[in-house]
Structures are given as C-alpha cells and as structure tokens.
Amino acid sequence: MASPPCVSFLKLESHNHFVKSFAVILVFLLINVSSFHSYASPTTSATSMMVEQAKALLEWKSSLSNQAKSILPSWGQSVPSNYNVTISSSLFNPCNWTGIACNMDGSITKISLPNMGLKGTLLNFSFSSFLGLSHLNLSNNSLFGTIPSHISELPKLAYLDLSMNQFSGGIPQEISFLETLQILYLHQNHLNGSIPASVGNLSNMTVLYLYQNHFSGPIPPEIGNLTNLQDLNLCTNHLTGSIPSALENMTMLTSLDLSKNSLSGSIPAFLCSLSNLTRLFLNRNELSGPIPQQIGNLKNLVRLKLSNNHLSGSVPHELGNLTKLVSVHLYLNNLSGHFPPHICKGGLLRRFIVHTNHFRGPIPESLRNCTSLVRVRLENNEFSSNVSEAFGV
Predict the structure, then answer these.
(1) What is its EC number (predicted)?
(2) pLDDT per residue over 45-59, tens digit each?
(3) What CATH number matches the domain at 290-393, 1.20.272.10, 3.40.50.720, 3.30.450.20, 3.80.10.10?
C-alpha cells in the first residue's frame, strides 16, 4: 500500500535538513582545520628559527676558550643532528639561556653577557642569524681580534657595547649600515687607525664613546652629522688637528670630552653655542689662544676642564655668569690678568684649580667667601695678596 503523500514529503524535508546541517558542520570543520594550519605554520617556523639561533650561539661558544665555555653551562654544548623541531622545542630553547632575551615570536632581541670572563673573537659570531637583535652587550670580557665587518648584518640593533675588551684594528666602515643604532660603546680597547667618516651616517645615535683607544688623525667633520648626539667622548687617543666646525651642528650635546689628545688651534667660539652642555673637557691637548668670551653662553655648564694646554690671555668675566659651575680646571696654561669678580656667583663651586699660570691682582672676594669650595689651588701665580691669608689658613 502506498504511503500517504504527506509522509513522503516529511521524509524528504528531513533528509534535506540533514544534508544542510552536515554541510554546515563540514564547512565549519574545514575552516577550523585551515585556521589551525595557518596558526601552526608560523609556530613551526618560529621554532625552527629559535633552533637556528641556538646553533649560531653554540657555534660561537665552541670557538671560545675552555674557561669561557664553562661559564655558560645553561647554553648546553650542541644541537643534536637528529633534533626534532616539533617535538623537542620545549627542551631546547635559547630564550631560557643566560644573557638571552626573546620576543613573543621566539626571536632573540637581547644578548647581554658583560663581565662573564669570555675569551675569544667575534669572527665566528653569525650576526645574520639574529635579525631581531636590538641589544648586544659583551663588555668587560677578554674578547680580542678585530670587530668584523659583518656586524653590520643586524638591521634592528640599537645598543652595542663592546667596551673594556682587547679588540684591535679599526672600526669597520660597514658600521654605517647599522641605521637604527642609538648607543655605541667601544671605549677601553686597543682600536687604532682613524675614526671612519662613515660614523657620521648613524643619524639616530645619542651616545658615542670611543675613549681610551689608539685612534689617530683628525676628528672627521662628518661626525657633525650626528645631530641627535647627546654624549660624545673621544678622550685619551692620539687625535690631531683642530676641533672641526661641524660640531656646531650637534646642538643636543650635553657632554663633550676631547681631552688627552693632541688637538691644536684655538678653542672655537662655536662650541659656546652648544647651550645644552653640562660638561666640557678639552684638557691635556695643544690648544692655544684665548678662552672665547662667548663661554658665558653656556648657562648649563657644570664642569669645565681646559687645563694643560697653551691657552693665553685673561679669563673672560662672562665665566662668572655661569651659576651652575661646580668644577673649574684652568691650571698649567699661560693665562694672565685678573680673575672674574663673581667667580662663585651661583654658590655651587666646589673645585677651583688654576695653579701654574700668570694670574695677578687681588683674589676676588667672591672666591674668598665661597663656602661651597672644598678644593682650591692658586699657587705659582702672581697674585698681589697672600693666598693663605685670603682663605684664613
């Protein structure tokens, strides 16, 4: 007996509903499988990157001395050749090693290993394996050899500290490719040659320390292109020539130290336009001529060292207008004339060292009544008043 037409219709409708529901579920599953695949792929890629970074670090570690190797036990010894990226990643993660920091993707962003007793070179350091590195600190170790040119293969590097090691040779020209570099510490090494003009291309730099090396030749005028620089220290080298006029462009400078070199010529007046300066050290050079009157424009100056040069003439009275001065060193020059009458106008002066010049006349009352002074040296001058009596000694 044939089924009623209404029953056949209901069965057909139920079947169609089932097919539609199944199709929806299937589409949902396909979307989620696709999403999972999209999510899983970067994770696998990131883990593979972490392993490559780990291998690069361990290859460098293996080039160090045995003593240095034992200092980094958390780094392990080597990546097994049969290492399974997807299974073993939790067991082998350089982000957990001493001195290593990573971002959320597992890319190493910071390598900080100061004072670790590391001994070796950077020749086997694979800089190109660390494209996310922004901070590299290997200071105060026993690293030697040259700074390799492939250090330029760090496109995100902002902080580089290789100071207090035994590096020799010159600064590689390729350092100019580190366009994001802001802080560069290369002081207290055995670096030599001239300071490369290419340093002037590092336009984001705020701090440059090259002191206590063996650099020679003139200060490159291109250094004046570093208009964001706040702290420049080139002291204790063998630099010659005059102070380049391009430094006038470095209006952000708060500290300038060119001391203990062989710089010649006069103290340029344009230095006195660097109104943010708090420290100006030009001592122990071959500078001659007068102290520029414009020095009174350095209203923020706290410490002034012009000693051990061949400066002549009188000290500008404008020096007395620098009310933030704490320390003044003018000794071992050929300065003459009277002191500025208001040398302690700000009441902050603690050290006033001006011995071995040709100063004459009375000792200013402002200096005699300067209660902040803890050290003063006036001997070997031609004062008309007795120094000991003036200070009640």
Answers:
(1) 2.7.11.1
(2) 666 788 889 999 999
(3) 3.80.10.10
